[in-house]
Description:
The complex is a heterodimer. Chain A is mainly alpha-helical. Helix content of chain A is 49%, strand content 7%. Chain A has helices at 27-36, 43-59, 65-76, 83-89, 94-101; strands at residues 3-6, 9-12. Chain A is globular, with a radius of gyration of 13 Å. The two termini of chain A are 24 Å apart. By secondary structure, chain B is of the alpha/beta class. Chain B has a single domain (16-132), classed as Hypothetical Protein Ychn, Chain: A. Helices cover 29% and strands 18% of the residues of chain B. Chain B contains 4 helices and 5 strands, in the order αβαββαβαβ. Chain B has a 5-stranded parallel sheet. Chain B is globular. Classes of the chains: A mainly alpha, B alpha/beta. The interface between A and B is medium-sized, with 13 and 14 residues.
Amino acid sequence: MPMVEVAGKSFEVDEEGYLTNLNDWNQDIAEYLAKEEKVEMTENHWDVVNFLREYYDEYQIAPAVRVLTKAVAKKLGPEKGNNKYLYELFPYGPAKQACKIAGLPKPTGCI
Amino acid sequence: MSDMMDDMEEGGEGVVKKFMFVNRKAPHGTIYALEGLEVALISAAFDQDVSMVFVDDGVYELIKGVNTKGIEVKDFSKTYRALEGYDIEKLYVEKASMDARGLTQDDLIVDVIALDSAEMANLMAEQDVVISY
């Protein structure tokens, strides 16, 4: 498995760049993964990333896009819980990209 | 053929079939329970009409308060609580399987409907696809 070095510590990632160990995650790593994805993190990005970590903690899976959208609408309001908003933040797919930055595995049912 | 046509009309953009996943095995020790759960989640992403049934040792998949630390595998029991968000709301257990293991609905992590074996047989007969693990 490849290793990356962030803030003087090294971490294992899989061949697609997803963090191998969920518990390794911290803000520095999120920033690093975001840079790899060419995403500039704003407060709105953090809201989604933090939401995903809470979702994972509660259900032990990364949600499919449709489920993420619905759940974000419920938690952060309908103006954020829609495809347009989420794809603007994460152009290559909110579930895939935001999950990666959140240090989660690739979503189940990601097609 | 006429069934197929009905399905097409009902689904609008695609065929919606009634899928039932029958879970018969204890959660750990084999990969069946976890794989079965993932297949159900994926089928829901394709907007299918999914129901899940838990019989025999499969009822243990839904048990509360699981701790898998000792066997060093992931505890995916919480994931059954995510099913609702995937619009999988039809969860059934077989009464006799629950009784034989001294379990009641209070022991389970999600709300389920308990059916006796005759009711279960009828429900299975209504399905387009039944997949058993």
